[in-house]
């Protein structure tokens, strides 16, 4: 996915954002936030640091910030870019991110080739990007353990937001809504503002100490991995620079019990490089 993004946007600024360890302000506000999630399997935990190292090695600045989620960092970066009239592409499959879409922010899912613009969000969810938070608040988010209105799914949420436009509008007209879902809505009135708060991506995180230059660092592309050998495709003018860097960087990739001998071969094809 990361290689494809670089190929699609070779001259763009880029950053890779990960969740930091520990609780966030959402856990402080609601202790049951994400409490339904099982611990990450150890085999996945062991892969996190190598992934971070690989991303950094191939020119992706890594950002992690304690106390907030990766979504909040991304939301802040996208907001800052929009204020500068920059276009932003967010690579994600997370529906929550649809709340960030505007005329300058687009979501892409490189796994499904889906692209969500303002119209794309409306076509997919039935509501505008500025209504996504209210849409999610009404339904709840089982993945994050955030309750919504019982028995309210996408169709009902879209119906209410089409008629009343906002969550505040739905709450204001709660007495008019009949049936079981109307009763459930009225039971949820005290909770809904809190649920909305938990599902709102924070777009004003102070990133002054964690975000530097997001330009590509090496310009190299990892095109395959074969056993213990890495194969790169690089522009001719970068060959000598990369050749000099690889032995040092590879020796630091993972803590190993034995020294690793790193040999670098350069050629126009596999045979010449060996």
UniProtKB/TrEMBL annotation:
GO molecular function, one term: DNA binding
Domain of life of the source: Eukaryota
Record InterPro entries: 5-3_exonucl_a-hlix_arch_N, 5-3_exonuclease, 5-3_exonuclease_C_sf, DNA/RNA_pol_sf, DNA_polI_H3TH, FEN, HhH2, PIN-like_dom_sf
Gene3D superfamilies, sorted: 3.30.70.370, 5' to 3' exonuclease, C-terminal subdomain, 5'-nuclease
GO BP annotations listed: DNA replication, Okazaki fragment processing
Residue span, 5'-3' exonuclease domain: 2-217
CDD domains: H3TH_53EXO, PIN_53EXO
Protein keywords: DNA-binding, Hydrolase, Nuclease
The protein's name: 5'-3' exonuclease domain-containing protein
Organism in which the protein naturally occurs: Darwinula stevensoni
